[in-house]
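User: Show me a protein chain along with its predicted structure.
Assistant: Here is one chain, sequence first, then structure tokens.
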Amino acid sequence: MLICRPLILLVLTLPVFVICQAQPNTPAAEKPGPKREFRGVWIATVGNVDWPSRPGLTTDQQKQELVDRLNAHRQSGINAVMFQVRPAADAFYAKSREPWSKWLTGKQGDAPNPLYDPLEFAITEAHKRGMELHAWLNPYRATTDNKFYALSPQHITRIKPEWFFIYGGIKLFNPGIPEVRDYIVKVILDVVDNYDVDGIHMDDYFYPYQIDGQHINDAETFKAYGGGYNDIKDWRRHNVDTLIQVLSDSIHKHKPRVKFGISPFGVWANRYQNQEGSDTHGGSSNYELFADSRKWIKKGWLDYINPQIYWPIDDRSVPFNVLLDWWSENTYNHHLYIGMAAYRINERKLIKFRDPAQLPDQIKYLRANPRVQGSVYFSSNSLLRNPLGIADSLKETYYRYPALPPPMLWLDSIPPNPARNVVAAPDAGGVALKWETPLLAKDKEPVYGYVIYRFEGTEKVNLTDPKHILHIQYDDATFYSDNTVQKGKTYLYVVTAIDRLKNESEPSPTVAAIVR
């Protein structure tokens, strides 16, 4: 039985000050991570890779599984999830023009019972935990097998069969048809307009990965729409480029503060294929998938690029370190998040991934490069299984302290105004903090959330050190209860306001609370 007794507090208001001088060296494992870092994880729904664990779970079971998953990731320090909501021209969200996914209910087109909206639920639960949610949609994949008879009558392949070709036994949208691009944009804007997502995200599937003996059946489409192109390969790249550019313009027009990012195959081009490519020897997105991913970030169509660098450091063909360095030189002042292969830990074919130091060394390597703003792990289950203790390493060392996602100044550079009239008061569980909503910022954007910092005794108030972040909240509530205080200690608190893109205000005046 927990017995709570009132604490006697002395509350003082002190001027705030920030100390930026160098601190004494600490052991490498104890050094705090950066205050700003994107720490993402992919939650894959295709084939029930991550969630739900199987089709046809009850609504309550699905919700509980997702909440448990988010709780575990939050404890590991994850601050963003890439949640797959459209794996194959289907939907894990209610406000869709496409049928419900079979991986949700067991049969394509059948709604959850009782009815709920998985995307809306995921957004709410992620934001409660101080995590961004990026809606992950696959643009061109329409099926994942050849069981076309099981498709819903409302599936787009049945409504517009002329929009698709079959490759590798599955149906894919034909990117060369203008109506296809228009349709995909509308599908994605349904999500942008109807849901409070932080970002729109795509992975590496554009034109299909090459299969020996298979040919893309788009010669007639090229004849109809390929005017101006002598090479069908250049035309295919143009088709994907057009979709990405239109999506970028449309997303930012509808909601200027929604981020748009893509996670392409790790190699854009090898140097032997293109002198501007990386010193690697592997497949390439530009020449095999017709996905000119470097162009998309160079043109500013993407807010972030998240290449899948799923190889070990010093790999013979595609070294993680070489490819990361190449991408860091080719992101054109936009964000670079590294796709990390948690799923490969303990893989028999790659001895280096059986080394417990491999992924930690990759984290150290990317953090040493100031042009890298974070990483994303594939996939959720791989982290939850904690192979070779990787989730423990994140929780106890690399993500020991919270981090804010890095700001995107090209989308929004105006921070909120500071929180007003911060006070502390006796509380049955500890210290109760309250404040008033800041005055409206210059851009008239309302406050999105707050960051609360805590210092003990004579500690210097230094907001650059993430170990002092007590709480990050993504809502506009103007109170917080600190129930982790100890009797006999003095605590200093500072509150800052953040906007949707995590621009941070100037700090509030420091408030001191002496716990008697």
